[in-house]
Design a protein that fits this description.
The complex is a heterodimer of chains A (229) and B (237). With 229 residues, chain A is α/β, with parallel strands linked by helices. Helix content of chain A is 35%, strand content 22%. Chain A is globular and about 45 Å long. Chain B has one domain: MetI-like fold. Chain B is 84% helix and 0% strand. Classes of the chains: A alpha/beta (229), B mainly alpha (237).
Chain lengths: 229, 237
């Protein structure tokens, strides 16, 4: 596993969209980013991924090689689940790693679907394939844009916990609309508004935290309050 | 089908035109049966030209589109030229092709190729240049070579567009073959129509025309079904 030697940081502004921001992702930890729809969360994530954003951003980005899971699952419809999970190796001309691929497919609860095509999956299943594909990439920085938004409550808990465990030792940014998820999974919780970024102190304890721990529930309530204010 | 036949017969009765100007369904049917050997031979010849031309044209179109997508300056230079070339009446090129390539099979095939490759190139190039955004984003972060990107993402993603281009090509191809036969040469349905026309055998001309239409429809249906099956196998629906 590659260690993240330095922090990842984006500083700057997008006039008309968001005021100056300074988002630093502490190495080897999970940062959860929340905020109203359209405020620019995906834009920040794309900046960190080194992708074009379509908005006028003025500022600096310090990046690491990143694995990305976009808001749209972006599976290749002509590849099977297993082939989609192994897309990175395929694109780089590396040998396949069938055992590892199978393990990741099992980890996201899709054992038995390895040979299916994306069109034969539900939205939540597709999202899980996309997550497995992201986990398959061995990158120091992992960027997840609403990775669990299409999952039912139970899977959201199980797969969220599993993802955070599998991503130990990497720098992770998770964009989410779910305060409960942020309270469970974030080493650090950041709320984005057009005025900029602000921190929300995370609950005590290592991640993933229990969904019903009093501290987690309190943080969840405070976050919800801020997001609806 | 029946409605067309009825309309046709009605037109013959209402206009009262003589058979050598507008033959009814019956004389045309009789001509079709009487000249079935000649028509079948001509049809086979035309079908051969069409199929060879379609295959060559599609191959050429695919190769050109790939080249244009691989070398951007080539693409940028050729893309407008491709559109402008659609304004050239292909019909006007037929005599020149005959002049260059003689009266045999070659100018007819060249005609079909010319008519087929433009829509194929256009469709595939458009597809290659507009890859699906979410898939591109993910793939770009994976550090692929440009070649791998083309091979594993942009080309497969463009296959539905390519299929549309080939479908269009299949519609135009028989027209190209028949035009080629009109201009030069003694074989094929186009030549047969021209000869029949010259000898006032309008019924035979209509018979040949009907076979041209049937041939076109059959070719389109076959190509369409093959492409649809191919796309389904590749995960598109
Ligand atoms: N390619 C683009 N061209 C122009 N404007 C864009 C483009 N992409 C995003 N925007 C604009 O930038 C703003 C922020 O978009 P972004 O996707 O970052 O929002 P978000 O916070 O991720 O929202 P959501 O929670 O709905 O995903 C939006 O108002 C959007 O209209
Ligand atoms: Mg977003």
């Amino acid at each position: 596993m590659t260690a993240a030697p330095r922090s990842v940081r984006v500083t700057g502004e997008a006039p008309g969209l968001f005021a100056p921001v300074d988002l630093t992702l502490p190495p080897l930890s999970v940062t959860c980013l929340l905020g109203a729809s359209g405020v620019g969360k995906s834009t920040l994530l794309r900046l960190l991924a080194g992708l074009p954003t379509g908005v006028a951003f003025r500022g600096r980005v310090e990046r690491l090689p990143a694995a990305l899971m976009g808001q749209d699952a972006g599976l290749l419809p002509w590849l099977t689940v297993a082939q989609n999970v192994g897309l990175g190796a395929r694109l780089r001309g590396e040998p396949e790693a069938p055992a590892r691929t199978a393990r990741l497919i099992e980890a996201v609860g899709l054992e038995g679907s390895a040979g299916r095509l994306p069109a034969q999956l539900s939205g939540g299943q597709r999202q899980r394939v996309a997550l497995a594909r992201t986990l398959a990439e061995d990158r120091p920085l992992v960027l997840l844009d609403e990775p669990f938004s299409a999952l039912d409550v139970r899977l959201r808990l199980l797969i969220g916990d599993m993802a955070v465990r599998l991503l130990t030792g990497r720098t992770v940014l998770i964009v989410t609309h779910d305060p409960a998820e942020a309270a469970r999974l974030g080493d650090r919780i950041v709320v984005m508004t057009p005025e900029g970024l602000s921190e929300q102190p995370p609950p005590r304890g290592p991640i993933p935290r229990r969904h019903d721990a009093p501290d987690v529930l309190a943080t969840q309530a405070r976050l919800t309050g801020r997001l609806i204010a | 089908m029946l409605a067309v036949l009825a309309l046709w017969q009605a037109a013959v009765w209402l206009t009262g035109l003589p058979t050598y100007l507008l033959p009814g369904p019956r004389p045309v049917m009789q001509a079709l049966i009487a000249s079935r050997t000649a028509i079948a031979q001509a049809a086979a010849y035309t079908a051969g030209e069409t199929l060879i031309g379609l295959a060559l044209g599609a191959t050429l179109g695919i190769a050109l589109a790939l080249a244009m997508a691989t070398w951007r300056p080539v693409g940028r230079a050729l893309a407008p030229a491709l559109i402008v070339s659609q304004a050239i009446p292909i019909f006007a090129l037929a005599p020149i092709l005959t002049l260059w390539l003689g009266f045999g099979l070659a100018p007819k095939i060249a005609m079909v190729v010319l008519i087929v490759f433009v829509p194929v190139t256009q469709a595939l190039y458009d597809g290659l240049m507009a890859p699906p955004a979410a898939q591109m984003d993910v793939a770009l972060t994976m550090g692929p070579s440009r070649c791998a990107m083309l091979r594993h993402l942009r080309l497969p993603a463009a296959l539905p567009r390519l299929a549309s281009g080939v479908r269009l090509g299949a519609i135009y191809a028989p027209v190209g073959a028949v035009i080629g036969e009109w201009i030069g040469g003694a074989r094929g349905l186009g030549a047969l129509m021209l000869q029949a026309n010259g000898r006032m055998k309008t019924d035979l001309m209509f018979a040949a025309l009907i076979v041209v239409v049937a041939l076109s429809l059959a070719l389109y249906a076959t190509v369409d079904r093959m492409l649809a099956r191919f796309l389904v196998r590749r995960g598109f629906c």
